[in-house]
């Protein structure tokens, strides 16, 4: 019977622990939080977007996103759903492929795992931060709070640095480095963005639907529609989180990063010009600022006019053809330079991590050190928003768990 240590009681660690214990291994989880699954509890606004039925390698980023393909094939949605049934967890599948626990509460996910790992005989050492992993002969020595214990196999499932308030540490990278593994530089992802402008803070609190185009070095890179929310520091909202992966990576590479906000994506440019013109004819004597609130949020209009350098108090009829053109351009491509992300503290996930080049994706075992395994977000694989990150954590955890139990 293999004696297995799992460092980190998050999604990947819990799945690996349960799989290994069910396959006959003697498993111990080390978790420095009071209890396991703290990030699961906070996920999906407390609802836990647990998986996505459509996940494929194209939903992932990293030096080699294809690394994720084998794990995703090994645990397609139906396999995960069946696994969930074995721990008493039923799923609610949405039309777009996102899944949530049927209870709609992340708590059920954690409770189901906690109960199942206990039943499978997994030991949980909580409130102990692992400070070192060493290999002596064929055994691994785990050090935590000046105590040492020996194991046959070790899984590093410590996650990333994203959301340190939930227990995230960069420890997994340090452990990997001591065994000669390379680390792709970590960067915050699924995160709010900081803008370089003098007006965004004046619009703090303004939430609207928009189409967001991410520009890298002036070229359009990605287009998404969804909520945006102006904030004191910059911009947030689901559409922004969606483009943040590429934006954050590009910032790290010193590229010029900008977003273009289209406040009225349903019109083409000419139709929008005609619409504004009609408005000025309909209410010629209304101040322009008031007239425009017929088509745009009242909180946005003054700042938009300031950006266009058009006086807000002129009668609508005085808007020239040139100004109508300028205004419709701005409404559909209001450009803001991005200068930073809101940081790891606010990020849902982190890109970068332990290089996939030195991990066998069929076993999750290190190619450098026999008996050492990796799973979850500590690896240089990061997914889009929509359940993809848990997806990879479960799938890679399951593979590692199975392999570690093999004698
Ligand atoms: C607010 C928020 C919402 C999210 N919502 C979703 C969502 O709805 N859907 C989705 O797919 N993804 C979501 N994510 C991302 C998802 O939570 C992570 O991708 C996933 O938890 C990664 O699992 P993991 O097991 O690799 O790492 P983690 O879940 O981070 O687990 C790692 C564990 O290791 C422990 N640890 C770290 N260092 C040590 C050490 N030295 N000793 C002992 N223990 C240690 C940590 O305390 C932690 O419990 C969200 C993330 C956040 C922050």
Q: Percent range for helical residues?
A: 25-40%
Largest sheet geometry? 6 strands, antiparallel, barrel
CATH topology of the largest domain: FAD/NAD(P)-binding domain
Task: State the secondary-structure class.
Answer: alpha+beta
CATH architecture of the largest domain: 3-Layer(bba) Sandwich
CATH homology superfamily name of the largest domain: FAD/NAD(P)-binding domain
Rounded Rg: 25 Å
> Could you name the ranges where pLDDT drops below 50 across 5 or more consecutive residues?
none
Number of helices: 12
Please state roughly what percent of the residues sit in beta strands, choosing from under 5%, 5-15%, 15-25%, 25-35%, 35-45% or over 45%: 25-35%
CATH class of the largest domain: Alpha Beta
Small-molecule components bound: flavin-adenine dinucleotide
């Amino acid at each position: 019977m293999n004696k297995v240590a799992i460092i980190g009681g998050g999604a990947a660690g819990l799945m690996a622990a349960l799989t290994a214990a069910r396959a006959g291994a003697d498993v111990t989880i080390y978790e420095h939080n009071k209890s396991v699954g703290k990030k699961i509890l906070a996920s999906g606004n407390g609802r836990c977007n647990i998986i996505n039925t459509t996940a494929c390698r194209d939903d992932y980023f990293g030096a080699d996103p294809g690394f994720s393909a084998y794990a995703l094939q090994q645990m397609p949605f139906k396999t995960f759903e069946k696994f969930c049934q074995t721990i008493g967890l039923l799923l609610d599948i949405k039309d777009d492929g996102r899944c949530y626990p049927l209870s709609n509460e992340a708590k059920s996910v954690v409770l189901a795992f906690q109960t199942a790992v206990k039943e499978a005989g997994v030991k949980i050492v909580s409130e102990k931060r692992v400070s070192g992993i060493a290999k002596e002969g064929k055994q691994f020595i785990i050090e935590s709070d000046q105590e040492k214990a020996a194991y046959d196999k070790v899984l590093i499932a410590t996650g990333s640095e994203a959301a340190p308030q939930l227990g995230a540490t960069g420890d997994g990278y340090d452990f990997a480095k001591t065994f000669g593994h390379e680390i792709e530089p970590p960067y915050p992802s699924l995160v709010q963005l900081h803008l370089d402008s003098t007006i965004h803070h004046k619009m703090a609190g303004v939430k609207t639907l928009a189409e967001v185009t991410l520009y890298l070095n002036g070229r359009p890179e990605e287009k998404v529609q969804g909520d945006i929310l102006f904030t004191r520091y910059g911009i947030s909202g689901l559409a922004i989180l969606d483009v943040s992966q590429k934006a954050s990576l590009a910032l790290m590479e010193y590229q010029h990063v900008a977003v273009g906000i289209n406040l009225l994506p349903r019109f083409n440019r000419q139709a929008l010009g005609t619409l504004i013109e009609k408005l000025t004819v309909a209410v010629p004597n209304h101040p322009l600022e008031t007239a425009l609130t017929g088509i745009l949020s009242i909180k946005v209009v003054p700042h938009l006019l300031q950006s266009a350098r058009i006086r807000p108090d002129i009668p609508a009829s005085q808007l020239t053809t040139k100004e109508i053109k300028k205004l419709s351009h701005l409404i559909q491509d209001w450009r803001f330079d991005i200068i930073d992300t809101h940081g790891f503290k606010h990020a849902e996930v982190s890109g970068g991590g332990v290089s996939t080049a030195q991990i066998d994706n069929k076993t999750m075992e290190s190619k450098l050190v026999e008996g050492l395994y990796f799973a979850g977000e500590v690896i240089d694989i990061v997914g889009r928003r929509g359940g993809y990150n848990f997806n990879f954590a479960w799938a890679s955890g399951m593979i590692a768990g199975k392999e570690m139990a093999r004698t």
